[in-house]
Specification:
2 domains; 17 strands; globular; 17% strand; UDP-N-acetylmuramoyl-L-alanine:D-glutamate ligase; 8-stranded mixed β-sheet; Protein-Tyrosine Phosphatase, Chain A; 423 residues; alpha/beta; 6-stranded mixed β-sheet
């Protein structure tokens, strides 16, 4: 079969190579990794968790970059371009670079079937090794123990939070999910837990394998003091730190997890206090309480599970507006919409439901029915797609209102795509 010549054609092919989108397990990926000879000699920082992974990765990349290291960063999913997933020294890898990596992976796999994510993970590592990065930060795609990223051994592993999401794959309790997340920890290596109430399964697994477990509020912590904050680690104290540029009360905790990881590997990757300060102010992840317009304010957030909704509600309360808060929501069918609506119901004055552009999308009418059942007399409107819903919400909004668009990466991506075409 002739190989594709464009990145879009490659991605289309990757989607068709394996019979299922998700196929948890490491055997196939490990065999192809061995065929490729992917043996990184630079430290790897692996970040898993239900929420907070992307922000933690962004802090690590920004701080290490400010310290002068050539970084590799692998994250998922992307919003607008696949290239967002693979960055070297803070820049997206080019189409040509990704195609070259995919060609190598394709040649090495032979008749071994790989999922889209597995293929991309190996391709990212091939790029990092080829580019000679000095440290790579890898974000887990789903779970941890059986995720493709876990074929690589972490110098330090971070679990940012544990909550109920992807339950069809990871289990229906925090205990089951915590065990899956803890699978990225390694014997004798620092294992950072940023969840303030970790399930016993995570703690037990770390003990059983002999990981160097470091827990938030026990071994490290963040304390806000006005518009500054203090980080306390095992033997580190950093004062007068700037608040992260990213919005949200959870961001101090995410930042403290990144600093705990860097403290744990400072023998190999020393960073200065100035690099930390620069990185905290530079780190940014699109789609996390991202403001794209004023009068009325329009905010985008990819929150798609109850824990993320709780963080979003706290941020809305911390940033009150003079007028109303209107919500445009589009979600995937496997998400806990009822749990999310229960958390955000008191913060929203009117709702617009829509259907994201995904085969896994929940229909707008179904979301509206759930809202009516839960929230009673709040105004609820239905639109076929995200931008129609946002246009209608904007037409009814006053200058001192704000509009929140949330519920899925697909929902946020549609707004960003539409905005890009207007310039």
């Amino acid at each position: 079969m002739q190989r594709p010549t464009s990145l879009d054609a490659w991605l289309e092919r990757l989607e068709q190579l394996h019979p299922s989108t998700i196929d948890l397990g490491l055997d196939r990926v490990r065999r192809v990794r061995e065929n490729l000879g992917l043996m990184p000699d630079f430290p790897l920082i692996v970040v898993g968790g239900t929420n907070g992974k992307g922000s933690t990765c962004a802090y690590l990349e920004a701080i290490l970059g400010a310290a002068g290291y050539k970084t590799g960063l692998y994250t998922s999913p992307h919003l607008l371009r696949y290239n967002e997933r693979v960055k070297i020294a803070g820049r997206e890898v080019s189409d040509a670079g990704l195609i070259a990596a995919f060609e190598r992976v394709d040649k090495a796999r032979g008749d071994i079937s790989l999922t889209y994510f597995e293929f991309g993970t190996l391709g990212a590592m091939e790029r990092f090794i080829d580019a000679g990065v000095e440290v790579a930060i890898l974000e887990v795609g789903l779970g941890g123990r059986l995720d493709a990223v876990n074929v690589f051994d972490a110098e330090v592993a971070v679990v940012s939070s544990i909550d109920l999401d992807h339950m069809d794959y990871l289990g229906d309790s925090r205990e089951k999910i915590g065990f899956e997340k803890a699978g990225i920890y390694r014997a004798g290596h620092p294992a950072i837990c940023v969840d303030p109430a970790p399930p016993d399964s995570l703690l037990a697994h770390a003990r059983r394998i002999g990981a160097d477990l470091r827990c938030v509020n026990r071994d490290f912590s963040a304390q806000r003091e006005g518009d500054r904050w203090i980080y306390r680690g095992l033997d580190t104290r950093l004062t007068d730190l700037p608040l992260p540029a990213m919005a949200g009360a959870c961001q101090l905790r995410n930042a403290s997890g990144a600093l705990a990881a860097l403290e744990a590997v400072r023998g190999r990757l020393p960073v200065s206090g100035e690099a930390i300060r620069q990185g905290l102010l530079a780190a940014n992840v699109p789609g996390r309480f991202q403001c794209i317009a004023q009068a009325p304010t329009v905010i985008l957030d990819v929150a798609h599970n109850p824990e993320a909704a709780r963080a979003l509600a706290a941020t809305l309360r911390a940033r009150p507006v003079g007028g109303r808060t209107l919500a445009v929501v589009g979600m995937l069918a496997d998400k806990n919409a009822a749990g999310i609506f229960a958390v955000l119901g008191d913060e929203i004055d009117a709702w617009w439901t829509c259907t994201p552009r995904s085969p896994r999308a929940q229909q707008a009418e179904v979301l509206a029915a759930q809202l009516r059942a839960q929230l009673g007399g709040v105004p609820i409107h239905v639109q076929p797609d995200v931008n129609s819903a946002l246009t209608e919400a904007r037409s009814t909004a006053h200058e001192d209102d704000r509009i929140l668009v949330f519920g899925s990466f697909y929902t946020v991506a549609a707004v960003l795509e539409h905005a890009a075409t207007q310039h």
